[in-house]
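pinning this so it doesn't scroll away 📌
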Amino acid sequence: MDKVKVAILGGSGYTAVELIKLLLRHPGAEIVAITSRQSEHIADLHPSLLGRLDLRCEPFDPDALKSKGTQVVFGCLPHGTSMESIPPLLERGMRVIDLSADYRLRDVKVYEQWYKETHHDQKNLAHAIYGLPEIYGDKLAGAKLVANPGCYPQTAILGLAPLVANKLIELTGIVIDSKSGVSGGGRTPKLSFHFPECNESVTAYAVGTHRHTPEIEQALGDVAGAPVSVIFTPHLMPMDRGIFSTIYATPTRAVTETELVELYRSYFADKPFVRVRANPPATKDTTGTNFLDVCVKAVRGKVLVLAAEDNLVRGASGVAVQNFNRVFGFDERTGLM
């Protein structure tokens, strides 16, 4: 079987280098181009790639990408930029897996409310598939445009999916308390991620206003078949990578912990990257992997869910490769196990 020719937009960031490493070991993928405003050899931008990939970053040019036989493009660009770059790729017959937020929210008004930007590509937004394979996997085969999910939302959506699908919890008043390592803020320097600012310190941010809130509610609403409302609060932790979410929900009836664990194991039985744990996970358990570890508990009349993942792999580049596998018909685990 011929390898699928791949291009990556925005090669200088953390998600791009993780994606490159995963694709280099994927037997069905060949990286043919990487774009960046920095016209450098990829190993100069990411020394860990020295001797592993001999490509120089090039300016974004849809025609040049098409001339290389590119079949799929991974977009590692910021929101707002992606929606300007993706339409000409789709017009030239390339498929796109976009890691930005530009195609995640189906309602344009919701996007513009939370992201404070006008959406300029409503045409393609209408047929974008939200790329959370455990929930929307059946829609991914042959998809032309996949909206890769955010990092925080995956712990919340997958952590709660068995409960909302079975109407075992109230769909309002769900509290999601999440912690993330500083790599979640990207590679571009920012004061709050400067070592003396974040080391030996924990802080909440975007309280009540974080843009992942509507993404979580949209997906959980799909699973529940009814509107879902959450209170989502993210925190910055003094570690390189990882996300840990503790979720609190009110059950609709009396439930035992044994019943909850059995429910989760049944729900995720055919989902190879969700591991149901008997005890609370730790971020180090998932570092460098595409696994999302989840543990469910019954505590004083509440249901508690604890979920952990690597924000750069499962939270971004790993699930992007998982989506790639679904789109092109590879085994979902290819290049990820």
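📌 and the second one:
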Amino acid sequence: MKRVAHRLLAVAIVSTLAAQAQAEVALDVIGDYEVSFEGLVQADGNWFNNDVVDLNGSSGNDGKDSEFEMRRAELVLKGKGTMFDWVLGYDAKANKYLDVNLKWKLGSNYVQVGQFKQVNSLEELSSTKNNDFISKAMVTNTFAVGRRVGVAYGDGGKNWGYTANVFGREMTRNLGQGQGFGGRFYYAPIVDADSTLHFGISAVDYDTNNDTQRWRIRPDADLATARLIDTGNILNADRNRTYGLEGLWASGPFKVQAEYMRTTTTRTGNSTAADFTGDSWYVSGVWNITGESWGYKGGTPTTPLPNDPAAGMWQVGVRYDDANLTDGSIRGGDEHNITVGVNWYWRSNVKIMANYVAVKSSKYNSALAADLSDDPNIFETRLQFFW
């Protein structure tokens, strides 16, 4: 399997270099379908300045260490037709399926069958290649339900839309589990060439895996192997129910975005323990300092191409995010992070990112019978090719 992954990665890199600054590679028109090929290759580096916990398990006596890894190698084949769209995606690095589904278009309505992203996170629904920061916010990485196999029905217009869906496990074995259902509604009272104001609500309810649930969070660093806040295993857990709020304002080159989610893990009927509730939120701001204006489509923001492809587009951003995993007898801890970053998009295929993350966390230590603070700092970089 490793040989297959390496070959697929090589194909991805060659295709990127051959794409000649195009956003996607149009392959052919087969019957009624315009068939195209897309890809995403990301390589990350993380430098950890640890405080208490060794974030990647191999630091020396000075508490500093680094980690480098190919983060993603995604290959996506798409077909667009008058009545049906289809997509087949695979991540050669993670050895897992991405979007694999068929969408039946019925005017403004649609029915989608297969594996796709569930609809309870604005950041999760946005394109991975255009994420504002290297690591998604804690709320997205913790409470958002990613890709699952299911059926969805949706409708919408220029400034509104809704989706309702039922789902099961993730297509790749031993990953996301638990049958459930969910929905999202959004409304944008302002949508024009220069400004967007967007609001959304979402809800999802799904079964736990083997009546056990564990909530734990990486400190806004995808290559960290340790978690600073962690509920441990919540036994006799029945279902998880998450409610979300989202907001977005964009005006010309400026964008402000925020999300809040609150999740309750209910217990089974034979349990005497109380339910657990945790929450998380973030607010972020990004400025395209080279002047490009943000777009909006289908309830998510879209990132523009550089006004001057040769010079590229520069962005600076800041994000504050917060997570609380303490409720009653479950002392999972709380964490507050500040991330500052700079991004450079060159032409239509290259993106370079750099982030600095200041972490402040606190978790109950039973041996000390007190809360213990852990406040590391992390520097992150990413080199990305996409087409």
